[in-house]
Hints:
Layout: H1 2-32, H2 35-52, H3 60-79, H4 100-119, H5 122-133, H6 138-145, H7 149-169
Helix pairs in contact: 1-2, 1-3, 1-5, 2-3, 5-7, 6-7
Amino acid sequence: MAAKRATGWSAEVEAVYRTQGRELWALFYAYCNNADRAHDALQEAFARLQEQNGTPIRDMRAWLLRVGRNWLRDVARRQKVAARSVDFLDGVSAGGGGEPSEAAERAELFAQVREALGRLKTEDREVLVLRYALGWPSQRIAETLDVRAAAVDMRLSRARRRLAELLEDIGVGHE
């Protein structure tokens, strides 16, 4: 019976990973601003969940989020250095082909946007990543962050304004 329960628990953990893994990764990414570290936090959270081996957890998603964020905090404390890259933009394509000069301009623009995003507060980066990297509507972001949709819209507005100011400071104009 214990083997059956462990197998059922493994299947439940796997189902949660499939349905919520991307969302949790995005939240971890917004917290630490490093794609690889966010992936490590996700793996660590699920490994610790698997170690629970059927122990009742009231809200599995909240538990995973707490474990992952705590792990990220511990890593940051040990390293005493905050990650400052915004890796998810490296995979963004601004169009195919084109002139080499256009590709160089796009690469420079991406580098400037990564720099500006790296300077934002975690809360600002979090709502921007959820909206623009994952394409989530305000209501889903609100449910994830446990706030009202109106608060998400206000955070997005402020985060966009702060990002625009930072981009202007480093010489990126409106296009």
